[in-house]
Amino acid sequence: MEQRTAEEAYAAYCAGDQSAFDQIMHEFRQGLIFFLRSYVKSYETAEDLAEDTFVELIIHQGRFRGQSSLKTFIYSVARHKAIDHIRREQRRPTVSLDEITHWQGDEDTPEEHYLAQERAQVIAKAIATLSEDYQEVLRLLYLERLSYDDISRIMRKSNKQIDNLAYRARNTLRTALGKEAEYLEES
User: Fold this and answer.
1) One-character DSSP codes across the chain
2) What is the dihedral of CA 159, 149, 154, 54, to 10 degrees?
3) Is the separation of the CB atoms in 161 and 152 below 8 Å?
4) CA 150 to CA 127: how far, in whole Å?
5) Of 70, 67, 61, nearest in space to 17 by CA
6) CA 152 to chain centroid
7) What is the average per-residue pLDDT within 29-54?
8) What's this model's pTM, rounded to 2 decimal places?
9) What mean pLDDT, rounded, does the chain reach?
């Protein structure tokens, strides 16, 4: 049997095929939890928010109108749930060491692993100095590998705003990393 696209699976679910929702959950659950964890810092909370996001798809089937990919829609709903949670908890999202290590890929030797961990710490420290919007656009671009169109829908900004935001975020990160590199050289 040929695999359906997420949009086709959701349409099948809305048409009454209850098993089609399993494909959607299988396709997006882990990435969504990882995305949400960058906001809430707790795997358990991220799991809860991901489940709430999927419940939203079940309860409000008519909200997804196909104007974007289903992934974009799901991540947008999840982002709003995370922001609402953060507002309730009065926390600010940051990028974790786990995410940065994930961005860098797998290492072959213990030395490479150690160096990657050190780089990850420097990058995490630099990213933590960035504004929430800068952190979010970098996370969506490089971790989730979403397009500018998808990011503009998720963040509710124009493509030009996303382009400018990404440019400024990269430059600010580059500057922050320069300061971190200088600090490491002095140590």
Assistant:
1) -PPPPHHHHHHHHHTT-TTHHHHHHHHHHHHHHHHHHHHHS-HHHHHHHHHHHHHHHHHTGGG--SSS-HHHHHHHHHHHHHHHHHHHHT------HHHHHHHH---SSHHHHHHHHHHHHHHHHHHHTS-HHHHHHHIIIIIS---HHHHHHHHT--HHHHHHHHHHHHHHHHHHHHHHHHHHHH-
2) 170
3) yes
4) 22
5) 61
6) 13
7) 91
8) 0.56
9) 81
